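Quick one, probably user error.
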């Protein structure tokens, strides 16, 4: 089943901030590129697996239908 994936403005801002931090503050363009690529791959995976993911441990967020996915190569949680 293909799900609709919505990237919230807040999640996009978080991702942009992480990428810019790694790029500008840490001076690591390869790591910034890897984070961006991993985010896009994760978004694409969500299209097919979103309904099978675990709900968040937070009861309020779980009640709203929020589920958890981790980036394949990085540990970030975007809400």
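Nope, works fine. Designed sequence:
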């Amino acid at each position: 089943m293909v799900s609709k994936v919505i990237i919230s403005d807040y999640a996009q801002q978080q991702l942009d901030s992480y990428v810019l931090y790694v790029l500008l503050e840490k001076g690591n363009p390869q790591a910034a590129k890897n984070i961006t690529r991993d985010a896009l791959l994760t978004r694409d995976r969500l299209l097919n697996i979103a309904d099978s993911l675990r709900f968040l441990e937070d009861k309020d967020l779980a009640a709203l239908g929020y589920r958890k996915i981790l980036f394949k190569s990085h540990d970030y949680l975007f809400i």
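Residues 42 and 48 are 11 Å apart (CA to CA).
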